[in-house]
Specification:
The complex is a heterodimer. The longest helix of chain A is centred in the last third of the chain and has 16 residues. Chain A has a domain of 157 residues: 3-Layer(aba) Sandwich (Rossmann fold), CATH 3.40.50. Chain A starts with 5 loop residues before the first strand and ends with a strand. By secondary structure, chain A is α/β, with parallel strands linked by helices. Chain A contains seven helices and ten strands. In chain A, a hairpin with a 2-residue loop joins strand 1 and strand 2. Chain A has a six-stranded mixed beta sheet, sandwiched between helices. A four-stranded antiparallel beta sheet of chain A has the order 2-1-4-5, covered by helices on one side. Chain B is of the alpha+beta class. In chain B, strand 3 and strand 4 form a beta hairpin. The radius of gyration of chain B is 33 Å and the shape is elongated. Classes of the chains: A alpha/beta, B alpha+beta. At the A-B interface, helix 2 and helix 3 of A face helix 1, helix 10, helix 11 and helix 14 of B.
Chain lengths: 229, 412
Amino acid sequence: MPEPLLALRGVSKVYARDGAPVRALDGVDLDIAAGEYVALTGASGSGKSTLLHILGCLDRPDQGSYRFAGTEIASLRPDALARQRRAVGFVFQAFHLLPRLSAVDNVALPLRYSGVAPAVRRARAVEVLRRVGLGDRLEHRPGELSGGQQQRVAVARALVGAPSLLLCDEPTGNLDSRSGVEVIELLEELWREGCTLIVVTHDPGLAARARRRVSMRDGRVVGVAEQER
Amino acid sequence: MMRELGELLRELWADRRRLFLVVVALGWGTLGLTVLLGFGHGFDRAMVGVLRESGDRMLRLSGGATTVPAGGLPAGRPVPLAPEDAAALRALPGVRLLSLEYTVRARVTLGAGEGPNARVHGVDDAYAEVRGIRVRGGGRFLSPIDGQERRRVAVLGDRIARDLFGAADPIGRTLLVSGQPFSVAGVLAPRITVMTYNGQDDDKIFVPATTLRALFGLRNPSFVVLEAARAERSAELVQEVRRTLAARLRFDPGDRAAVAIRDHAAQAREIGALILGIRLFLGIVGVLGLLVAAVGVANIMHALVDERVREIGLRLALGARPLQIRARALLEAALLVAVGGGGGLGLASLLLLGLDALPLDRSVRAYLGSPVPSLPVAAGIAALLGACALVAGWHPARRAAAVQPVEALRHA
């Protein structure tokens, strides 16, 4: 059996909140194969966002091992870690766009860090913005766009580097239902093209669309369900 | 690299309102410092020049009166300095040059009519060098032959020359001193001296000592001026001069009032120390000012990083290397310093050049100097500002690069 794309073994993470330690993750074992579509569900504080951050190399486990395509993430030095992050596309609930930059500049930002020439960056950014249906909003700033449009800019930014892994943290949490459906359909389209898609959500409707559903409670994985559609 | 800079510029431009204050503060600090140091430098240069022109290795002697009995003679006896006494002093090894100086006030005219009651000084040819006097082009100072032959030649101070002759060239013209004709041999270059006596040289007329003596029937000079061979040993020379004269004129060597000796060299040293003090003071003020500016920049950079924790976290999440984040913060600080400091330097240069172009009175100008932003001052300020940028940018840059992306994004 080939090695899974993502492999977690005994991953734990403890935060100090108001001086008291909080066990956000408690011995998580999880394998995710390339090309999977996984929903991470659970109540608020169940550890699903922490798990997503560790998967995206934004955070490190206190204990346990996390291997990304065979590489032990804990062993990476800062520059290699930055390179690893570029292989991941992130979509956040709060969009996290830079308010001073235009849509096209926001989308081009990850390419800048991977050393792509500016002219190429812009061309690629325009291309993905067209793809998410914002070809007529290139020079708008985030403040001039609706929530759904902002999230589509964020999706464009996540996919501009052609990542093999898309991580989405409540991608529809701040959107009305119609915009939410548009965004999730866009993400699924990318999944169908071969991307591995992991979505954190507490929306049962959204979770039901995934092929596999991982339920969490108190930092532990309490259930894994394969789903047919 | 240039592209990186271009994008940074674009982003900073988008942030211009917030950065405006930093730039203004930096510009203001630089402006103040440059003007301050420019003035200091100009003043400094002017003072050194004025000092040199004032005769900074000169002793000036004049006769006095005894205050203690000596040589069997009672106190209160006048002690006149005679030309023979001066001749004895000339033989001292510590004396390089010596001149007698007779002073009278006399009516000076160009012929019939009114004329000013001017100071006329009878001096020897060595006088110009002792006093640091320079003569304007086209003329000359008194020569040894003028003295030997008791020639009727005169060298005019700049102001009195203009009073008498207006814009016309006085060289070769004739003027009457108490009705006696004198030919003008030269005019002094305009000068301001800090160590004057009997008024400014600009207002005086210099004629050969021998001529003036004969004309007015004078015996003893008002002053004897001499130049010490070594300025730094002027105090010893003062002692030696006093001993020599005490022996000749029979007064107590400890009786300081018998012969008044003004040590211009010592005075010049004091003024030199004062200039050094001013220089030091300006230097300290300047360094403190820059430190304050640096602390200000550091503070603002801190605030900027704090405000941008979320943004920096996001950039890291999007794959930025810590080095890129650090370089950006440093570049930003350097850019702010360059714009603010450069602007301040430019404004200060304009201000100083404008001041230099103002039609100020010559004497004001002489003391003020030309407060032009000199190259060393500008280079020094630029170097210090660069150091400020490094200091100011380094710490925030390190903090920025140490931001944990997940922390930053969570606290959004």
